[in-house]
Amino acid sequence: MTSAFEALLPTTERSLLHRVARAQSEGRAPSFVAAVARGGAMVWSGARSCVDGHDPDADTQYRIGSITKVFTAVLVLRLRDEGLIGLDDPLEKHLPGTGVGEVTVAQLLAHTGGLAAETPSPWWERTPGSTRPELSDVLGETPALHPTGRSFHYSNPGYTLLGSLIEAVRGVSWEEALRTEILEPLGMDRTTAEPVAPHAGGWAVHPWADVMLPEPSEDLGVMAPAGQLWSTAADLCRFGLFLAEGDDRVLSAATVAEMRVPAAPPAAGDAQMGYGLGLQLAHGEHGTLIGHGGSLPGFVAGLWVDVAEGLVGVALANATSGPQPGVVAADLVRIVAEAEPRLPEPWRPLPASEVDQDLLALTGPWYWGTYAYGLRLGAEGGVVLEPLRGTGRRAVFRALPEGGWIGLDGYYAGETLRVVRRPDGTVSHLDLGSFVFTREPYEPGDAVPGGVDAQGWRGL
């Protein structure tokens, strides 16, 4: 595996820089900075600027827009993990009086609450937060546009509600919770609610001429949890690595993995994009990337993570439109994955303490009807059940303290696999959510639901 001390190959670095140079030139961005992380640390960064000799670096702040939402989602899931809220709780339980209290916490995280995409006029991204000081100003008179829980509809006000939920339950400001619960533990000291030098200025580039106009930079007030933050390529690399692996100081690996599970169907006409609990999911020919894009007047940003490869790609630009940092961040991940694929971990036998002879005797072929499956041992007393040929339902199971195993993924997620024994103690079959797996296909005398024809197997 590539570590923090193993630089990328010069040819890979050249390809990455070439992609950034194209993005800055073709996207007509005043500046463009990007970075790649792998093996626990940033392993490459590069930049281009319209001012010779003044390229930004990985420590230069840019506004990251809706990437802020991922931070807000992490804070919400911390509350859930502490038992202070439930994802199925209606908002009204913790934040009464909004008028949309029937929407659940999970629906707000996944943008399935049916809320409007934007606030009432004026355009919230270019006006000060004092224009809409209360949640009622953010929600307006008709906050719900779609049936609750039925479809994906991206909602900035929805994440404003989540920010207010955090403040109501924690008893501190969203910004303070963010700083103490995420930024400080992860060492992200260059991620802030207001810009701290060195930082880029936001620009609008004329669509039909090579001229620019400065964009305003507003404090978004109660809308801050939807898009306020400034950050750097280096800090976002740290955050991306956390989203890939978890960090018990912030969220466990299991909870971060839960964030990556699709929680909303793709929007109409966009089958390649999905949404988890605060994370965008991009499905492509090279697998699934998780992360988020962001934009505010003067800035666009992209953060993508390939969990399987342990790769993070970050791209930031200071132009309202033109550059495509989301596309570039995904391309950076692809370039490294193709040029320097992650080496698989060396195979090692199980520790002697984990080898249970009774469990070992259960391995090998099992049959669900005539479908052939193989059961093999996993780590820490777990097992893996997978089809021996053709397509089928593969699943990983974790051992339960009381015996048996619980499914962790796929069709059998949450289902219990157990061993059923005969009165004499010998193994009769495996039971998986009422499905019976026997050692032979339809063997007479086995516990096959519906029985087995007395004449047995025959030809024509």
UniProtKB/TrEMBL annotation:
<dbReference type="InterPro" id="IPR001466">
    <property type="entry name" value="Beta-lactam-related"/>
</dbReference>
<dbReference type="InterPro" id="IPR056008">
    <property type="entry name" value="DUF7586"/>
</dbReference>
<dbReference type="InterPro" id="IPR012338">
    <property type="entry name" value="Beta-lactam/transpept-like"/>
</dbReference>
<feature type="domain" description="DUF7586">
    <location>
        <begin position="355"/>
        <end position="439"/>
    </location>
</feature>
<dbReference type="Pfam" id="PF24491">
    <property type="entry name" value="DUF7586"/>
</dbReference>
<keyword id="KW-0378">Hydrolase</keyword>
<dbReference type="GO" id="GO:0016787">
    <property type="term" value="F:hydrolase activity"/>
</dbReference>
<dbReference type="Pfam" id="PF00144">
    <property type="entry name" value="Beta-lactamase"/>
</dbReference>
<protein>
    <submittedName>
        <fullName>Serine hydrolase domain-containing protein</fullName>
        <ecNumber>3.1.1.103</ecNumber>
    </submittedName>
</protein>
<dbReference type="InterPro" id="IPR050491">
    <property type="entry name" value="AmpC-like"/>
</dbReference>
<feature type="domain" description="Beta-lactamase-related">
    <location>
        <begin position="22"/>
        <end position="337"/>
    </location>
</feature>
